Amino acid sequence: MKIDGKTRLLGLIGNPVEHTLSPAIHNALASQMGLNVCYVPFLVKEAQIQAAVEGAYALNILGMNVTVPHKQAVMSYLAGIDPLAEQIGAVNTLVRTDGGFFGYNTDAIGFIRELKSEKIELKGETAVILGAGGAARAVVFALAKEGIRRMYLLNRSVEKAEELGAGVNRVYGREVVIPMAMEAYCEIEEEHLLAVQCTSVGLAPDCDRCVITSEDFYRKIHTGVDLIYKPAETMFMKLVAESGGKACNGLKMLLCQGVTAFELFNDVKVPEEMAQAVYQDLCGELEMDDE
Ligand code: ATR
What we know:
Number of helices: 10
Number of strands: 12
Strand content: 15-25%
Shape: globular
Bound molecules: 2'-monophosphoadenosine-5'-diphosphate
Distance between the termini: 30 Å
Structural class: alpha/beta
Helix content: 25-40%
Largest sheet: 6 strands, mixed
């Protein structure tokens, strides 16, 4: 990487930021595409969010990603917000425009991009979503936007599923989301479901845990996507595969959110083979089987 007078800066703000894979994604794409940009992490404390966003703009920074716990707080300091990010109530990508940064949620856009690349049909389909936290919010609003027919939203604290479900159903003016308690999964009568695992259960080092273990549940799943990518094969994925379903981890979603942000920052289109090369690098970094 050659830094010169024309190098533009990209970065990530969050707390903590030490374990992020985003610099690996963005710097690899920049190098492959021959763009004179450099991506670095910035540790930002909660009280400094406004100063960080305004300071980044003042420093002519080209774009920023935003991670936990700042995805809501940054929304107050932007020149505009994409409608999907507005619905989700979280922004993870700030794109430089005249007059300030414009906010997107590429977790949501990237998730849909991944499903499309896996040729998973969404329109008119039914899904079951496990979890109702921040990650689930992006997934649920994104699937609703894509015209999914129905989502069973299962969460340990049913009130959180009810609140998120009510928000989606209000926006779409129909009962897209059916909120349920996690243990009520046996009441789902539909079959041929897409399942998305959005809880933190099963994340390393708790690799042998999973929110639902019943075989009856997994029999109904044609594809199971776990947002977790450490370990590379979660217990949820094992159970999906054992019942004959296709299982994916969250690494492609992470990659797709990064590629989408990179395209928005730099106003370019990343060729598929370059994204694939970065995916192989990430697999290597995570020492996982990348089949
Ligand atoms: P994230 O941003 O990763 O979504 P989060 O907003 O803290 O993180 O959400 C974590 C999700 O994992 C929630 O759905 C949470 O369920 P509750 O809302 O009931 O807390 C779920 N979760 C975490 N630990 C869990 C556990 N031991 N059993 C079941 N669900 C769990």
